[in-house]
Amino acid sequence: MLAADKPERTVIAKERHDDELIHFEDHGTAPLPPAAVEGHVGREGARIWYASYGTGPAVILLHGGLGHSGNWGYQVPALLQSGRRVVLIDSRGHGRSSRDARPYTYELMAADVLAVMDDLSLDKAAFIGWSDGACIALILAMTAPSRVEGVFFFACNMDPSGTLEFVATPRIDRCFARHARDYAELSATPDDFHPFVEAVSLMMRTEPNYQAADLNRIGVPVAIVLGEHDEFIKPEHAEYLARSIPDAQMIYLKGVSHFAPLQRPAEFNAAVLSFLDGLPS
C-alpha cells in the first residue's frame, strides 16, 4: 500500500461498561481461569512468566506498559470460548516476571516472547497487543514473521512523534493506582514500583524508532486499532501506520480510550474475534 492510499476503515460501536475505570481501580479485572501450563523461562538476566490456556489456534496476549497479564481478565474467557489456545506473558519486570539492571527495550522484550514460544514448542501464533504490547507484537512481525499469524495492534506508536503530550486525568490516575497495587502484590521486588516506572517511562520517551520503510516490509495481516478518545496516541499516527503497513486495516473503537479492553470488553472482544476469524487458515 502506498503512503497516499487511504486505509480500509472499520468503525465499531460500543455499549457502556467501566469508562472511568472506577471498578478497575477498586477490583481489577475478572480473575484468570486455572492455567493448563504455567511457568517461567530464564533469558538475558530475567525470569519471564507465562501461562497457557485451552487448545486450538494459538493467540498470545501482550499487555501494556506498567501492567501485567491479569489485565486481560475480560478477554481470556471469550478467546477460550471461541476455541483458541490463549498464551499470556508478563513482560520483563512486569507482574510476575523479573528483570536485571539493564535498560528496557522493546526489542529485548520481543526476544523474550520468542523464548516463551520456544519453551512452549509454539511455532506460530496470532498476537493481540495493547500499548507497549502492541509495539512488541509489531516488532515480531518485522523481525520474526514466520512466528506471527497476524497482529491486532491496539493503542501504540512506532516512533516518538506518534504520542500526544501527556495530560493527567482521573481515569489515568485510577489505572496507575491499580498498577501500583498489583505490582506490590505480584512482583518479586514489591517495593521497587517507582524505579520500575522510571525505567519503563524512559523507554517510552525514547522508543520505538521505526520508519515507514520498516513498516512497509511487514508481510503479515495487521489491524491498527485506536479508541476514539485515546489519551496517548495521535489519531494521525495510527492512520500513518495503517497506510504504511501493506493491506493493514484501520479500526476505530467508538466511545472508549486507551483502556478499551477494561472499559467495554464485550465490544473490544468482538473486534479481536473478528480480526482473528479473518486470518488465513
UniProtKB/TrEMBL annotation:
Top-rank taxon, per record: Bacteria
Uppermost EC category: oxidoreductase
UniProt-recorded Gene Ontology molecular function terms: chloride peroxidase activity
Pfam family, one: Abhydrolase_1
UniProt xrefs under Gene3D superfamilies: alpha/beta hydrolase
InterPro entries xref list: AB_hydrolase, AB_hydrolase_1, AB_hydrolase_fold
E.C. numbers: 1.11.1.10
Keywords: Oxidoreductase, Peroxidase
Domain annotation AB hydrolase-1: ranges: 57-156
PANTHER family, sorted: AB HYDROLASE-1 DOMAIN-CONTAINING PROTEIN (PTHR43433:SF5), HYDROLASE, ALPHA/BETA FOLD FAMILY PROTEIN (PTHR43433)
Protein name (record): Non-heme chloroperoxidase
Upper lineage: Bacteria, Pseudomonadati, Pseudomonadota, Alphaproteobacteria, Hyphomicrobiales
